[in-house]
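**User:**
My hope is that you can spare some time for a protein that puzzles me. This is the protein in question:
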Amino acid sequence: MTINKKKQVQRIFDSISTRYDFLNHFLSVGIDIYWRRKALRLTKIGKEAKLLDLACGTGDFALEAKKFGVNEITGADLSFNMLKVFNQKSEWSNGRIVQTIAEQLPFKNNSFTNITVAFGVRNFFDIQSALIEFNRVLSNNGKATVLEFRLPEKGIIKSLYLFYFNKVLPAVGRLISKDNEAYTYLPESVNDFDKNIDLIALSKKAGFAKVEKHSLTFGICQVTIANK
């Protein structure tokens, strides 16, 4: 991702911040809530965790982790407006969120036991550099859990999904968000990520010892868990 692309991503998410939660739940028919819960169960997160939720947006992943008993949570995102909404939704996030990029994290080595990212990795301008930073700030045996869209591999499911994702979702998203670019960028970024990024290979290259991948909901979403 170029610097111009980074500015584009920041502008988009600043623009749609107040409508982001509604659109997420509406356009995914609420399945995004299940995906976050499933990802946290798969990573076996618990109350002893020190969590960094990156690309935290309006805080849904962090708030879900709170329900799993996690008390030490730090949120980080590029978009100031998304973080502002996070603060409005939470009684505890004030002072515990930071505006930053994933490629240059303002944290000391071995600061966290867990990192979570929901639907944000594809927006990083340098995924490999971000994963190296993940490894740096995680303690030994720490886990980086990435929840991300992918394209289904099988015939009719793939055809229906692509029609919804490339035609229906952008049209509804534009209508509700009033941003002509935001929900065109979404399918474009997912297509690009699915074709060009091997998250398992990049995670291993970044120094993670073991990486596992789980496919969810007919293959339209994946959870990748990298263990340090």
In short: The mean pLDDT is 91. The two ends are 26 Å apart (CA to CA). DSSP finds nine helices and seven strands in the chain. The domain at 3-227 is CATH 3.40.50.150 (Rossmann fold).
